[in-house]
Predict the 3D structure of the following.
Amino acid sequence: MPQTYKELNNRCVLKMNKVVVRASKYMMIIYLIIGIFGYLIFSDKLEATLHCPTTGGNILECDFNGSFSIQVARFFVTIALVAAAPLCFIPAKTSFFE
């Protein structure tokens, strides 16, 4: 039984599904925003990057020159990872010790 389910006040499968769906929606929105910002920042360099033999067409090889938007995106990725880590580790720890 997942730890998140044990912490619900009135336990039922419907509430657990609601928690999982909400969490997934929030994370999807955060990753979409990050992806869109990343694409918009490098969109002007996209044509040059795709035809450059040294980068092999990898947009991640573009130089962002300390862009504020990239720094904001890095911050939100860090927040997303910090928020998601307990959702992975707590159930794993619980199931390991059971």
